[in-house]
Amino acid sequence: MGRIDRLLRVDLADRQGRPPLWPGDETPDGVWLMERATALKVVRVFDPAIPKVRHLIQAGLTPGPHFNTILKAAAEAQTDGGFADEPGAVAWLKAWLSTH
């Protein structure tokens, strides 16, 4: 996942580079999308890079190819709603390590 405000910035850059598209900084659709995303609290859902390698090292793991397996499992768990912030990622990592 990414950030909706960045999507709207790309839309603006595209429109400004290819006139005669909608003038100005915002389109009615862009305004609606940002208002809706803000109301749903999904403007920025999560940092796609948690947990990070440093979390694995802090958990006592030695860097190696197995890091990819752990980070892929973490990304899948995060996408599935298993956690959404750093403390949640650390808790997920501890639980995952205890079962693998």
The total tally of domains equals: 2
Structural class: mainly alpha
> Sheet bearing the most strands, described?
none
Name the average pLDDT: 82
Tertiary shape: elongated
DSSP helix count? 5
Q: In percent, how much strand structure appears in the residues?
A: under 5%
Distance between the termini: 27 Å
As a whole number of angstroms, the C-alpha radius of gyration is 19 Å
List the helices and strands and how they pair.
Layout: H1 4-17, H2 28-40, H3 53-58, H4 66-79, H5 86-99
Feature tags:
single chain; 100 residues; mainly alpha; 0% strand
Description:
The chain has five helices and no strands. With 100 residues, it is mainly α. The protein folds into two domains: 4-40, no CATH class; 53-99, no CATH class.
What's this entry about, in short?
With 100 residues, this protein is mainly α. It has helices at 4-17, 28-40, 53-58, 66-79, 86-99. 8% of the residues are buried.
